[in-house]
Amino acid sequence: MSNFDLEQFLPYLLNQAAEASSLAFQQVYKDRYGMLRNEWRVLFHLGQFGPMTASAISARARLHKTKISRAVAKLEARRYLARTRDEDDRRVEHLQLTAAGRAAFDDLRAVAERYDAQLLAGLSAAQSRALKAHLTTLAVAKPGLARM
Amino acid sequence: MSNFDLEQFLPYLLNQAAEASSLAFQQVYKDRYGMLRNEWRVLFHLGQFGPMTASAISARARLHKTKISRAVAKLEARRYLARTRDEDDRRVEHLQLTAAGRAAFDDLRAVAERYDAQLLAGLSAAQSRALKAHLTTLAVAKPGLARM
DNA sequence: CTGTAATAGTTGAAAATGTAACTAACAAGC
DNA sequence: GCTTGTTAGTTACATTTTCAACTATTACAG
User: Fold this and answer.
1) Hey, which bits of B1-148 come out as E strands?
2) Is the pTM above the cut of 0.90?
3) Which strand D bases fall within 7 angstroms of a protein CB?
4) Which of B6, B119, B143 sits opposite A24 (nearest CB)?
5) B133 touches chain A (CB under 8 A)
6) Which of A53, B32, B123, B139 would you call most buried, defined as having the most Cβ atoms within 10 angstroms of its Cβ?
7) Phi, psi of A4, deg, nearest 5
């Protein structure tokens, strides 16, 4: 007899928590700026790390390059970012936020900051740190499952 | 000056952890049974909770009814589940696993059980419990964000 | 009864995603 | 130089998801 519980299965539980906690924030960037998830992510990468290439964002965000490509196209069309071709390696393009892009980022970052605090409101500082540390470990890990 | 860190923003972090931890398991149910995420979820609900209606699964899994409808159609086509119409309320249909469906569930449940243990290998029992408790809280919560 | 609203589930069209193939530019071996 | 391979990024097509409309059935008010 197994005591397995679907709702305590970590990948399932993480998905449920991720979706629930993304909802309210998603509402904000969608309503205020008409952005999708990948667009928001690209915006935040550029906002936080400064000018980057699409590949660099792809690697850091673990986002497929086609998603980046399409998100960048939309952000560019809406004048939230600008591209400049690298003169040394003309395959590469450097992405950076426009003034409008930075304004959107600053606004959304402030929301994110408060929202994060709200999500963690029930936990002590130590508990929050522990939770995030464990999640970071899980996010970075590349678990395989040999011979199952 | 803000000290906001995208990679420590809970919704983002949860998404990264959820995706990373889902990957290896997804590979198994996809390779062995050709299932998609929603099909696996429906299978597990029926396996764990016994016969249910589509609405009941929808409510418990927080999965939209169209996803359920299509997942059920595929699972039925592959003979993993069978439907029976409720005689008292003929709108309702009760879903239950076939023998093949239960076999698939038993197999995948065993994988899930071992995989879960592997994901938590670095943590003590108390830490694991605390982590899952916090995730459960986040998964159940319906956070809004007033006046941000 | 009868009309109106609600619920269970399905379907069609539009949007988004995933996968693979593609172009263009650079790199390295010979 | 020329071939072969690699990397940056885009595009095309198939699959999935989303959203709204739809059918069928039940509930409920008058």
Assistant:
1) 52-53, 81-85, 93-97
2) yes
3) 7-12, 16-20, 24-27
4) B143
5) no
6) B139
7) -65, 140
